[in-house]
Amino acid sequence: MDFDLTWLLWGLPIAFGLGWLASRLDLRQLRIENRLAPKAYFRGLNFLLNEQQDQAIDAFIEAVQNDPDTSELHFALGNLFRRRGEYERAVRVHEHLLSRADLSRADRHRAQHALALDFLKAGLLDRAEEALRKLEGTAYEEQALLALLAIYERSRDWAQASEIARKLDAGSPGQFAGRQAHYLCEQATKASPEAAEQLLEKAIKAAPRSPRPRMDLAALRRRAGDAQAAYDLLAETARTVPTSIPLLAAPLADAAIACGRRDEVAALLRANYEQTHSLDVLDAITSLEDEPDAARQWYVQHLQREPSLVAAAKWIAGEKLEHEQFHPDVQRALEHAVKPLTRYRCAACGFESKQHFWQCPGCQAWDSYPPRRVEEL
User: Fold this and answer.
1) Is 288 within 8 Å of 256 (Cβ atoms)?
2) Which of 57, 123, 170, 362 is packed most tightly, with the most Cβ within 10 A?
3) Is the Cβ–Cβ distance between 161 and 153 less than 8 Å?
4) HSE of 211 in the Cβ direction (CA atoms, 13 Å)?
5) Binding residues
6) DSSP three-state, residue 123
7) Which residues contribute to the annotated binding site for Fe cation?
């Protein structure tokens, strides 16, 4: 069979024409997709600015479908899911990013951090801890350590929290020595007396100006019957951290009575009271007085300086009234009225409590309770 060259002459222009048409169609499709992706992206941004998260999510999903290789769109979508509480969808987005082989090192670390935040917000602390541990040595290491610290505080794993605080104190501009001392003190509350003493000594070295380790160690030695050692520790704390005297005034007075240092402590407390007019220091001073009348006189002097309902109630408790039969009722009413005034108040969140806390039960802040009662603020 003879080959007809005319078909070749016709075929070459036809093939060229079809190729040119196909390329034009591809370019047209590419232009359409490129126009659609930015429109969807900017539409999503507009919805975000107007706080319309549902519509923003829909727009970003459309943008991701049109341009599945853009990592920024995935990050935006994952963060939106997390903000809305759709943690499973956020996890899927960030795990998809981590599974991509073409993801840059910086974006991989960013996706790992975002995934850890997903688990943290979802309350999956074990998975969050595992994800945060993988950020060691990255640009997100400090943020990861702070998140780990929050996890260990929340789970009251004080040993791990102490280790993280040590790393943060060594590698960041913030000061975590005081926090580390608190963690060691928390561990000491659950330890044997011997182990507790070692932990508290370590806490004193970590934060020499923190009053809690010395106060806890003094209480430990007082329970062991060593009043002199307890007194020495508390007196040293009073000298080095004068602002802590209202907190340690009562145990200091108790230890001084036990070891015969009453006059020395009385002088120290009176000097501090002249400067602070603290109710706790005042109570400690009255506990050192031998005569009840002399003790009550201190409350009278306080009333002359400060209009204190707390001091008035304590003075009236030891006085004889003209109508003594009504004294119990009056006293009960006064004690009920002064209860809110004798509380401590967190400076961070305003949570009030009958006792002083080193960590606020409300907002979990450390050292947020000033050593003064509500009436003194």
Assistant:
1) yes
2) 57
3) yes
4) 22
5) 346, 349, 360, 363
6) coil
7) 346, 349, 360, 363
